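Lecture 7 notes: from sequence to structure.
We start with the chain below.
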Amino acid sequence: MRKDLKEKVVKRRKSSNQVNLASKESDKQEDKNTNVELKYGPMPTFPNQRVFARGVMILATLAIVYFTSKSEKETFLARQKEQVQGRGQNVVCSADYTKELDAFPGCVPEKCGRFVSDRLVSDAEADQLLDIAKRGLALGKTDGAAAILDLHTGALSMGKHFVNVYSLNKTGQVFTLQEFAIYRVVRTKIQQAVAHHFHLAAEVLYLTHPTFFSQLTSKPAVTLHDEYWHPHVDKDTYVSFHYTSLLYLSNHGSDFEGGRFKFLESDNSTVVVEPRKGRVSMFTSGKENVHFIEPITSGVRYALTVSFTCDKKYAISDPSGS
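Predicted structure tokens for the same chain:
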């Protein structure tokens, strides 16, 4: 009995010694690993490191969400860097727009929508019209972000009001007969393009008021006329409008930043037209084409709005300077 007990004690001691030896070897290995010199030195540490790392991750996530959601809600009808021969987008006509046009046979569009072309107006014509706009608008000094020049009525932004541009030059005409001729040629081209795209007879379309040059800058708004960035419907703003067109006379991204034209869809997504010198954008003027212009952040944006009506009583003549 004593012999058996003695053997058990011996076995326990041997087992305990083996565990102790294994533990010591493990400690030695751990010390060895701990004392290894890192090739590029220890990792840097600073106060609130964990909070900072979490902040960076949150910002990165928000940035991804922002740019992803933006790209999903914004599509392009025409970018500034591309030359568009002709690109359109059909939309459903609003009921009140169609009902009104039923009173004007031959002036109802085959389909409502938008259309963009960079091949309609030549570079030389765009440059000549830009020169007219700059010289005319320079005669007035507007206080706010938006200024207009209407060659038909002579209306020119001055301070918070309007003056007659033709009354400012007592020695002769402000613009030459050749400049009025260029204006008429371009207007006629646009009118024919509107008629062609919407499948109308050109003679049922009439130039209407207001048709004007615009100059937009990043100045703060002073009057309601300066707040060009609000979504709106042309037909609600101007009862005479049935078809709207815009001829851009400066380039988004080089002459100015911001100022992109956006159609606002019913789901709050937008369809974007980036201004390009010589680019013509045309669209039906009803509620199917709610739109706005992004605020200008720098530079100067020039454009010519040319509007058409189907109602002859709202027709205007080409400008003559008299």
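Points to note: DSSP finds six helices and 15 strands in the chain. The radius of gyration is 35 Å.
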